[in-house]
Structure prediction request, 542 residues.
Amino acid sequence: MRSLLFFLFIFCTNALAATTIAIIDTGFDLDHDFLKPKILKQETDEEALNPGLSEFNGWQFNDNSHLKVPVIKDQSLLQEILLYRNLRAKGHSDGLSLAEFEWFKKRSNDKEFMLQVKNFKKHSHGTFVAGIALREGENINIFPIRGLNISNPIVAIEDTSLPSAEPLKSKTPEEKLTEEIQNSQDRVIQKFSKICRYLSLNGIAIVNASYGITYKNISSKFREKYRALLGSEIEESKLQKLILDYFKNIHDRTSKIIQKYPRMLFVFSAGNSGVDNDLFAHYPSKIKLPNTLSVGAMNGDYLASFSNFGKINVDIGAPGVAILSLVPRVYSQDGKDLYSPSSGTSMAAPYISNLAAQILNINLKLKPQEIKQIILETGDEKDYLKLKFFSGSIVNNKRAINAALLSRDMSLDQSITLAKSGLIPMEDSVSIGRPPSMDAFELKNKVMDAIPKDISPQEIEEIQSTSEESLPDQDLKTDKPDNLIPLPSVVPTAPNLPVDPVPSSQSEGQSPPPSLAPESSSSPASPQPPQTPNSEILPSSP
Prediction:
């Protein structure tokens, strides 16, 4: 009888467990009917002004006033943007008809339209990411951390406590450049440090960071700043040293901060430049600690063309192409939920964060490094991924969940080995402690039906008259007769030069399609709107 009571106690304890995922991002719809009940801290909270938390006075951690009004107010333009995103996702997975392809090509060459696509993405990135972080499992909450009136996603919070910079008039141009770079590093570190402290005080277990500072962006900014201050082009060797020193500084300082919070698991998006993170700098995904995870984006069984990779610095791959998620309700005209597909490592990171939360809910005794071990060691190994990811694998939710269940009664290594063997079937949703996943096919059809798909004959005629336009994207498939591009039979190769599409974080991904994003955290594989990386660089606006 005692054994039975003990078993029931353990089962109920785990069944009631609730894990919170902190999401460092922008574009959160805190009023969304689906998200609001799952947000741990509502926008009306006054925690930052609590005398017991005086160190946070003046810091704005949570605000969604920017989402009260849509950035796209013209409904016909909004429908075109949703159609464009829908076709981009369809091009990755199913291929496009000739008419769809031509329409997509025409819109991709319209700079003004692409700017609006980018604005919509940045305005909605946090909502996209939050929807994915809550995609499956019970008793999972989110804890949004965002900036206030900050256009650049990496600026996660507004710090009014920092003293204003002293005038630089008496300094030489070289000294000014050095000081501005140092100030930029200090802002990045101070904001991240303040965020971690705040999350720790609120008992957060998992932190999702779908954003990044990229090699390409820093290189461009340093060139511009040098030219503006010294009136000449910077030597390549000097530029490379500045870049390496910049990233080494913020990586080293951020690593020390993360080491202070060993009970939090940090999940980073790997970036959307399609480059090797072992060779090119990327922050913060290159931080390698027992409680950090860097995630690349997969297009089915293949590495997404826009996804960064790295045998040393990127841990595992997760779905990151044409991922369906929520759109802020401010864009809904009839009050119904809107969905839109997004691509990018910004989407892959919250997929992993959600799995980590499910694992922790199953076994609250697991430490961050143990959750990480389960995720990495239960993945589907692929020979070609052994040169792309540290684990050489794609995440396998079922095996990871089974390993977590088994870890209640046996060692972690034994649990992982047994879960990988497939000898112990665990299909019962009750034993797994979570509801069955939503039918992906049904949801996909619902979303596709919600977005206009018809292209008028007039538009087709207009497109045919502009056939001289360049094609928008190599990887976009079409079902044009004798011109269907099949899935690659070999591992897609990364471009020689870093090409960063947009935030993997706070924007749909830092990638060409984004995190749906910064932002999602994003790639050469499919035409994406020009994006500005999620990075806080030289000191401009705080």
About this structure: The longest strand covers residues 292-299. DSSP finds 14 helices and 15 strands in the chain. The two ends are 62 Å apart (CA to CA).
